[in-house]
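Action item from last week, closing it out:
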Amino acid sequence: MKKLLATILALVMAIGVTTTAWADGEGTTAKIAEIGETGYATLADAIAAAQADETIVLLADAAINSNTQITKDVAIDLNGKTVTVTTVGTQNAFEVQNGATFTIKDSGTGGKLDLGKFGITLVNSKLKIEGGEIKVSPDSPGAGIVVAAVGNSDVTMTGGKVVATNTACFNAGYFGTQTFNISGGTLESKGASTALMGISNNFGGHTEMTISGDTQVVMKDAAGNAGSLVSDATGNDVIKVVGGTSDSDITAYTEATAPVVLTGDGTYHIGTTAANAAVRNAASGETVTVVKGNAALTDVPVGVTVANNGAGTVTVNGSGAITEGNPYTVPARYYYNSTTTTTTDTKADDTKGSPKTFDAGVGIYAVSALLSVTGMACVGRKKF
């Protein structure tokens, strides 16, 4: 009897597993991606099936051939997984056309998009980079670009990382207007012979690129060599750096009055927010240098030295203007308080607080007045 029951139980479990697999619609085929509750065996299948404004979520690492066409608004959520593009000939990894918006994000941790030898091409379309690491690995320097924009195309980056070794992160031009708004994430284009942004406006095109926010620009290779931020820009192109940090000198593209602070580790901090954050995090004994623009630095710690090597106006914690060649070290202050004889004041500015001193004459007068009033009260009580 026990043997029979065990056999029946095994059959019931087998039927349950089979039913679950059948209901899932996949059988024994693993799902690589899904849109909503629908799973797909390959990323290519998911892209082909995606409707406008839908998001494809990766469930596992995926491979896809180059020359994948994006013709409608679609997003890929790497979800912490890796997508590897197999390059066929000289085909681009992705081609975005017909005014479509292609979004790349990563709701997980460590998601990567390896584009192979060639990158993403935009033709009158848009690309949004919100997360993940996107890189290209060309066979030779300059042979492949991570993102190439042609015609009236826009690139917006708020997070993630774009990596290009011995080639450019971005390339734009030929015709139309290309706009690059980079407000977050990391742009990494290492190698002395390359530029982070290449422009080829040979047919009257116009390119605008703005780097702002907390964007990190990395251009130095292991030997400390770095290329340029932009190559082949014309007077018709507008390149601006208004915020972020860089391991190389890109002050040629910053506004004349915007502060640029250079810290001891060789990092340039651009804009009011980045400049103040840099000096506030400096340690006693360190020197930070304002190399360009006007800077009203606040909350600078005691012992930090600020130098002005630019032509702008620089103040520290409300102090007078610091002139070129006359660095200023934030001093410590001393004053009395009510509990100890002397206390070191770690206020980092030159504005003294109200000193808590004790005037002996005033004290004696106050005590005498108190005793007099008390005595009068006692005498009056006795008379009454």
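Closing note: The longest helix spans residues 360-383.
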